[in-house]
Each structure stands twice: as structure tokens, then as C-alpha cells.
Amino acid sequence: MTASDTTELSRAGLMIELGRFADATRLLAAVLAAAPDSCRGWCLLSRAHLGNGQPAEALTAASRASALDPANDWPFRLISTALISLGRGADAVPAALEARRLAPHSWRSHVCLAQAAAAGGQLEFATEAAQAGLAVAPDQADVHVTAGRVALSRGDVAEARLRQEAALAIEPTHSGAINELGRISLQLRDPATAAEHFLRAARTSPGNGIFGRNSELALGYLAIRLARPILLAAALCAAIMTLLATGYPAAAAALAPAEVAMLVWVAIRIRAVPSQSRRHLPRLVRARLSRPAVRGHKKNKSVNAGTSINAGTSSASPAAARPLGSDGPSSQF
Q: Quick one: which of 138, 132, 86, 96 has its CA closest to 117?
């Protein structure tokens, strides 16, 4: 490999860090055409594909890298990460174990194994791997983020919050930790706070679309809460107006306190939503009001199903099962 190729690989790595995954992919394709035996080049290409939402291509590139340098743990971490992204958590564990065997003193290998085990539903194993990572590198924010995700997967909300707060104490702008605090807030059925965390994560890492998607989910969950009270308030208002029009002012006055209480409840919850998100609420509430589930007909099972965040998690709010971690596994892989 020439000095120019090495420089181009460094440029590609910087592009990946900046979220310019498509640009990095094009640059790496040119470099690898000239230097196809570069393990580093194939690993960077795998990372670029992962960032670009192409796990199958990432797996192919990482597998090529592992064949070129089977003593290097990085390709195996990337293989594991790609398999997780493909929904093959159980298949990701062997690659992560190989990475740990090759680099037992690297925190990245322990974190990779924790993520793979959690994705495969092996939560005790994931917890052990996360604890090993904390023992090796207690000063690394990514280790705490992963330990917190594993804790949330097994339903330990207090430990999950503690780990994310520890990560932010180390790296205050860690968007993954901020995003996880949003997921924890949804677990605790606090969508307004969750939306605030997700929006903060999006501002910290604007190239990551997952945070915007999570914000939409949190606001959608809040819209579910608001839709029925708004519909009830409208019905009460119509009833009051009808009673006044038909000569029953006393009955109308009896309903008025309930109407005021309902409107105050809705207003308090709307004010709790971050100001930059409130403009989306009317659209989301209208969408919820138009659904049969809100109008009292057949329930929307996808909204009401009590799914969990990961296998082995205790019951959670429906929305808490859906928001994603920041690209799932750490971008360090």
C-alpha cells in the first residue's frame, strides 16, 4: 500500500466519524481497487456500510478483512455488529467470542460480546460481558452505555439510568447515552421527557436519523394519551352547549368543572413537551383521533401489545419497545 493510499484511508475514517458514509464508501472503493489486500480498508468499508444502513454489505466487507488478517479482532467485531444489524443475534456471538479471544484486554471486545449476547437473548452472559468491559475500562463512555442497554433489556431501569448518567459524566455530549435516557423515560411512561432526550441526541449527532425517528415515536405515544381526553373534552363541550340551548343551565353548570379539569390536564401535558416538538402534536393527535382504536372500535393491537425491549425484559410500555439505540452497537466497531 502506498503512502497516498494510507492518507486516503485516514480521510475515509474521518468521513465515517462525520457521518459521511456514502462519501467514505466511494473513496474506499477506489482505494481497495488499488490495494485489495488492505485489512484496514475493508474494515473501514464495513463501518461505512453499517453507518449507511447496509449490514449485508458490511458483513461481506468484514468477512473479507477477517480472511486477510485472522489475528486481528476488529474484523470479527464488525462481523458480529453486522449480524446483529441483520437480526441474527445468536450468530453474532461466535464472532464476538473470537474477538474477545484475540483481544481479551480490549474493552471493545467485551462490549461487542455484551451487545451480541443481548441481541441473542442471553442476558446473563451479556451482563457478565458488560461487567468485564467496565472492569477493563471504567473511564470509557461506550462501556457504560452498553452496560446500561443490557440493564434496560433485563428490566433494571435504575441501573440503566445510572450507567447512562455515568457515561454522560465522562462524555457530556455522548448522543447514544442521551438517546438511552429517552428510552428509559418511555419505559417509565414519560413521553414528554423522552422526546426532550431524543431531540437533544439529534442536536448532538445530527447525522443520525434514529434520534429523529425516536422523537416521532415518543410524540406519537404522547398523542395517544392526549387523543382520548381531547375527544372526551369535545364531547363534554357539545353536551354543555346542548344543555344550555335546551334550557338546562343547572345540568350544564354541573358538567363545566369536568370540562375545565380535562382541558387543564391536556394543557399541562402539552406544555411539558419541548417547544420545538409542539408543532408536530396537532398532526399526530389528528392521526390518532382518526383511528378506530381511539373512537372505541376495534383495538390496534400493534399499539396496545405489551411487547418488551429485548428478550427477557419485564413488561414495558408499548412505545418503549420500539425506540432504537444509536445505531444499535457502538460506532466504534
A: 96
Question: In the chain, how many domains are there?
Answer: 1
> What per-residue confidence (pLDDT) applies to 3?
82
Residue 274 lies in a domain: yes
Query: Pick from 111, 140, 180, 170: which is nearest to 326 by CA?
Result: 180
CA 332, CA 109: separation in Å to the nearest integer?
11
118, 164, 176, 185, 299 from 152: Cα distances, Å: 10, 11, 14, 11, 28
Q: Provide CB contacts within 8 A for 234, sequence distance 6+.
A: none
What is the spatial distance between Cα 282 and Cα 118, in angstroms, rounded to a whole number?
37
Question: Does residue 140 fall inside a structural domain?
Answer: no
Residue 257: give the domain boundaries: 218-296
The answer as to whether 137 is a domain residue is: no
What b/e string do you get for 262-288 counting C-beta neighbours within 10 Å, with b at 16 or more? Answer: beeebeebeeebbeebeebbeebbeeb
C-alpha cell of residue 161: 439510568
Give SS3 for 155. Answer: coil
Rounded CA gap, 37 and 12, in Å?
17
Q: Is residue 252 part of a domain?
A: yes
pLDDT < 70 stretches in the chain: 206-212, 215-216, 219-223, 225, 272-333
